[in-house]
Amino acid sequence: MAGDAKKLQPIIVKKVVRGGHGAHGGAWKIAYADFVTAMMAFFLLMWLLGSTSEGDRKGIADYFSSPLKVALAGGSGTGDSSHVIKGGGEDLTRSHGQVKRGDIEAARSTINLMALRAEQRRAALARLESVMRRVRERVAASEALQPYASQIRLEMTRDGLRIQIVDAEGRPMFDSGSAVVQPAMRELLRLVGAVLAEVPHRVTLEGHTDAVPFSGAASGYTNWELSADRANASRRELVAGGLPPDRLLRVEGLAASRPIDETNPTAPTNRRISILVMNRDAEERFFDLEPRIDEKANGPAAIPSIRPEHAGAAPRAGPERP
């Protein structure tokens, strides 16, 4: 019976369920982020150590060793180094250091040229003022020319010194209606020519008349021809006084187109000879505007513009005057 009881005893099977892995959480991400950050800081430090100069490194070391001292007095930095990165910009004032040389010589040449031009202008102005002074002094010293002193007008203009010799009642420069020079006018022109011979400036010459029609206009000879003939006669007197002929750039007649007294076109002062002693700027403008003559084809240097012996706006109808 006992054996039967054992056979009837139930078999109990116990299944032990083992617990699974618990949740890991995000702690590993924090550790990984710290590691990546440390590596980035390490490589950044390596890059900084490789790219900074000795002065920068010394400044950083000084700051961490005694920050208060550096804050008060300052430490070494990029200014102490010979270079930080390779320079590339042009510097026209430095010839060494962190920049390339650039066009230093060209800049210096330009500055020197500008200074030279300024000095030349000052010297030219001084010469023109000297011409003005000497003309006045020599006219005042001549008893024959003293009565004509009021007919000589000298003024400094943008283009140089302008000398104008005007007519006055009872004291004409030329015979009436002709280009025959009066004796006092001849002496005055030769005096001016002698003074101009002492300076290297070029000269232009203009003849002007009043607005009174020329009495012989029916023959084709007008105030245009008369003003041109008077300008050319004045040119001959300037040359006779000593002015080199090749210093004359232009001789022209303008008739009554540019009166001094615009309110009275027939005033005697409108009959005049105008001499311009040109400064350097006026000469350069003249040669820029006037056509140049080929010097190779014409031998010696030719003077551009109207040739003095053929000055005037139209061909003369009458015979050549003295």
Short structural description:
By secondary structure, the protein is an alpha+beta fold.
Description:
By secondary structure, the protein is α+β, with helices and mostly antiparallel strands. It has a domain at 126-310: OmpA-like domain (60s Ribosomal Protein L30, Chain: A, 2-Layer Sandwich). 42% of the residues lie in helices and 10% in strands. A 5-stranded mixed sheet has the order 1-2-5-3-4. Helix 6 crosses helix 7 (223-240). It starts with a helix and ends in a 24-residue tail after the last helix.
Can you give keywords for this protein?
322 residues; alpha+beta; 60s Ribosomal Protein L30, Chain: A; disordered C terminus; single chain; 10% strand; five-stranded mixed sheet
